[in-house]
Design goal:
The structure holds 2 protein chains of 2 kinds. Chain A is built from 6 helices and 8 strands. By secondary structure, chain A is of the alpha+beta class. The chains are: A alpha+beta, B mainly alpha. The interface between A and B is large, with 44 and 35 residues.
């Protein structure tokens, strides 16, 4: 009876989603209840193979977390061709810089298979920062660390004379 | 596809949908009220959902509990209202006589002969009161047969409240499905949006959802607070039917600025019948002004802190435009619609500016001044 009641009340999707998102570095150190708040902020969207998630130059306002399928990241070259930058797999996330600013995307993302993604919209993250500060701080801290690591990798490879004033373009 | 071709089809569908909705706007009321119910209910469902419980059983259990409570309290309120209506019908001739006497006293005290010379406002008031006294003479004349009149008109009255009953059943029914679907409904809608506009559509949905949710929950909480404060005030001055008048004040407060005005009208009328003196009217007036003061200075800044802010002139314009287009319901929903329009502009205008290169994000001032260390 208790087991039936538990099955009736408890959401099996909750644990499945939690197990999946726990593997992502962005959501490390987040408690079960905080994951509950995070799920409320996430929106699910599916894409067919070949469908464009966003184009290079579009204004970005959301972070994409790839749950299933593969996504190709590519950029237009000066010759007008498309050059593939990366192929993303389930568990990868992209477009995170749009959570910090609303700059145009610097690459195009296209679905290679049937793709299912979670979208975290900027305003929803701001709401999380306000109402569940720990989860907001965890995400923001991780984004800051990621940005610092990317900057360091760019400045380490760039000449010293321009390293101090180099304008770093985020990958996405 | 060129720009005009790309926008022509969505624009056609949007216009056709808007026209269709306008043509059927009379049947939209239960759906709109159900959406309001869903907004009010959602935080409660969310409380359990974030703890890993399934939405459907939570909604079912909460809904059954709430409906049971509402049905029982409606029965109780109807019972009390019936008793008080019976009492009011019994006391009606006495009340009318009291009111008539009170107005006659006021009229005589404000008589042009006794009023100070050259006091035109007093004379004008006296003339107005004289008209009211005639009205009360008319009521006194017909007051004796009032209970019988009400009884004979009861069948037509019952038929008149049928649409209200229809809404009372339809709204919880539609509301149940809206609450149950919840975020799935949002995901479905987002699935129809062309992938390129997903982020913009998501932005619009999130912002409108936030602003409408905050507005509706804020207004409901504000109405509850105003009703409770008015009740405390009316009880303090020992006004008859304090609970009923406070309920009307709270409900009327859903329309901005109307609640305390209703309190003055209803409370003032009851005070006139009950005490038959100007002092009673002044007491009611003081309570209603006090309620308005507390609402403006303490409740609104707290409850509506994070809701969309509209300038008072815009609120009045929204109310008048709503009333002109859709009558009472336009009055009720004019302000939330104005909030939605404001959010639409706030989201679409920056998107349009950045999309077409009219303006980019402002660069941080220290980026070129402080070296990267």
């Amino acid at each position: 009876m208790i087991r039936w009641f538990k099955n009736f009340l408890l959401d099996p999707e909750f644990n499945r989603k939690r197990k999946f998102l726990q593997r992502i570095s962005l959501f490390q150190g987040i408690s079960r209840l905080e994951f509950g708040h995070l799920f409320q902020a996430l929106v699910v969207r599916s894409y067919a193979p070949g469908e464009i998630l966003f184009h290079e130059g579009d204004i970005g306002r959301a972070l994409f977390i790839l749950e299933s399928g593969r996504v190709e990241i590519s950029r237009n070259t000066t010759g007008g061709d498309n050059s593939q930058l990366a192929v993303l797999n389930p568990g990868d996330y992209f477009g995170e810089m749009s959570l910090l600013d609303e700059c145009p995307r610097s690459a195009t993302a296209a679905a290679m298979d049937n793709v299912r993604v979670y979208l975290l919209y900027k305003t929803e993250l701001e709401k999380l920062v306000k109402h569940v500060p720990h989860i907001g701080a965890a995400i923001m801290t991780h984004l800051g660390m990621l940005l610092a690591a990317r900057l360091r990798s760019v400045t380490d490879t760039a000449p010293i004379s321009i390293a101090s004033t180099v304008k770093v373009k985020e990958v996405l | 596809m060129n720009l005009s071709g790309r926008f022509a089809l969505p624009l056609f569908f949007a216009s056709a949908s808007a026209y269709f909705l306008y043509r059927v706007h009379e049947i939209l009321l239960p759906f709109v009220l159900a959406a309001v119910l869903a907004y009010l209910f959602n935080p409660l469902v969310r409380f359990f959902e974030v703890r890993g419980l399934r939405r459907r059983p939570v909604v079912l259990i909460l809904y059954v509990s709430l409906m049971t409570i509402l049905s029982l309290s409606s029965y109780k309120i109807a019972w009390v209202a019936a008793l008080e209506a019976e009492e009011a019908a019994h006391n009606m001739p006495l009340y009318v006589q009291k009111g008539s006497t009170a107005l006659a006293n006021i009229r005589s005290s404000l008589n042009t002969d006794t009023a100070p010379k050259g006091s035109r406002p007093f004379q004008a008031l006296a003339r107005r009161v004289a008209i009211s006294a005639d009205f009360f003479d008319f009521v006194a004349e017909h007051g004796k047969s009032w209970p019988q009149d009400v009884l004979t008109r009861m069948p037509s009255f019952a038929l008149g409240i049928l649409p209200v009953l229809e809404i009372a059943f339809l709204v919880p029914f539609i509301g149940f499905f809206l609450i149950q679907e919840g975020p799935k409904f949002r995901d479905h809608v987002l699935g129809w949006v062309p992938s390129r506009y997903v982020e913009m559509a998501l932005g619009l949905m999130v912002e409108i959802d936030n602003s409408l949710g905050k507005y509706m929950r804020g207004v409901s909480l504000e109405a509850l607070c105003v009703g409770c404060i008015a009740l405390a005030g009316f009880w303090a001055i020992r006004l008859d039917y304090a609970l009923q008048i406070a309920m009307v004040v709270g409900l009327a407060n859903i329309i901005p600025y109307v609640g305390p005005v209703m309190g003055i009208l209803l409370g003032g009328g009851v005070a006139l019948f009950q005490w038959g003196t100007l002092a009673g009217l002044v007491k009611v007036l003081a309570v209603c002004i006090g309620v308005r003061f507390i609402e403006d200075w303490f409740i609104q800044p707290t409850v509506m802190r994070s809701a969309v802010h509209l300038h008072p002139v815009l609120i009045v314009f929204a109310l008048m435009a709503g009333a002109k287009l859709f009558g009472f319901w336009g009055l009720l929903f004019g302000v939330p619609v104005a909030c939605m329009v404001k959010v639409l502009l706030e989201v679409l205008w920056p998107w349009y500016r950045s999309q077409y290169g009219l303006a980019g994000p402002t660069p941080l001032p220290e980026i070129n001044r402080i070296p990267l260390i």
